[in-house]
Amino acid sequence: MSYFNVKDGQQGIALLGAMVVALILSLLGATLLNLAGQEAASAGLASHAAVAQQLADAAGELVVVWFHNPQATADASQLSALRKKRNRDKEGAPSFFDASGRSQFVGTEDQPDVRLQNSNSSDSRLLNDLETGMFRTMAHLGQVEELKVYAPSKPGLLCTIDTTVATNSNPSVRQSILMQLGALDLPPLRAAVQVGQHLGRSQPGTESPVSVHWGELKVGGDLILTQADEIPLRSALAPVTGQVYDEMTHREDRWMEGWIGGTIQVTHLPSGQTPSLPSNLHTSQNPIPGVRLDQWPYEHIKQAAKRFGRYFAIDREGLLYPQGIVEPGRGISPDEVFRSQGNGDQLGLIFIDTLDQTAPRADNLGIVRLQAPYFEGMAVVQGHVVLAPSGSGQSIRVLSPPQIDQGQDIARTPVQLADMHFNGVLHASGDITIAGRVRLYGAVVAGGTIASAGSGSSLEVWYDHDLSRGFYRGLPVVYRASGTWMTRY
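Now predict its structure.
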């Protein structure tokens, strides 16, 4: 009898143990299901937070676009002047910074220079309207609640961008991000052609080979011409076209002005006659008041090229070496570096250093031959240049400098320029020699002179007015400063 009682007790204990194990497994399963649900919810929230961060970043990057594209701000009065340089640097040139280096953005987080808020109906349309808003392509993800631009917290930077966004998810996630912008702030080029020394020589056939449209000619020394009528008359009625001067009955231009440090010499002039010069040609400017040539500091431009463009060393044969490392047998020809495939193939800033990679002197200047049929970009050569493009160039569509129309509004005329070999900036610390008939849109600077390689060689330049505001295609106007990005919530 006692035997069966013991057996029944053992079975009861086993049953109880099985029930406890089952209960534990049930609780463990419920816990795992709950954790899985929490993990899924956390993953969903993390995904929404990532979307919010990307939206906030995109809002900040849009401000960078505004600086580079003034048309993007045409519908907002407080943004239309965002890109305008309101200060003057030590040289008197337009700048984002004053002479002491202080940014033109002086607002605070509570009182910013620029503020757009979704709670304001006009700002909401500008930012988030489904058809015309700046963020319409991301409207399915969320919207911008607020965007502010104010003073930087670090000296030397341009401004702080403060953006707040909210996602369309349920629940909605809000994200606020701060970042600061730096400005490249290269000195502007305020003339079509600038020459540090004399332009042309007194011997017949070596006179000035340069013609200028739409801008100024600045010469530090004397200007030597073949005929006095080579300089176009400045006239408000001159046609705004891509026509070259040789095709005109009378040479006229709306913007051409000449500032000559020394005198004007004319080689083909009947004996005893005095040349009749146009009123837009001003001579004997040096030493007072002086021909003010735009200065591009060697080290400043060199560092800009290393960061935002391409930097090359050069040897005495004219071969180029990337990153400034001269290795025998590894040099490349300038034609490989300065050849654009066509209109729109922007090559940016290309900097060619001196032979010893120190500031230019008379004894360390190399020679660069630019023979590509078309180049679009900025060629900064710390030496001499031979400009001898092959081929007929490219047809490009450009805008004339601003002019006052009948409604007293500032207007820029679209113009088609044919057979252009160079679209951008040619800057040489030494001399520029012209071989052939060369056409250029942009600006030319020579620390020495511009000379002809032979009879019939000429350089005809149409000035790009955007260069007067320090806007250089292929280079950033502003950029995100490293180490300044942060999230608030």
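Residues 193-469 form one domain.
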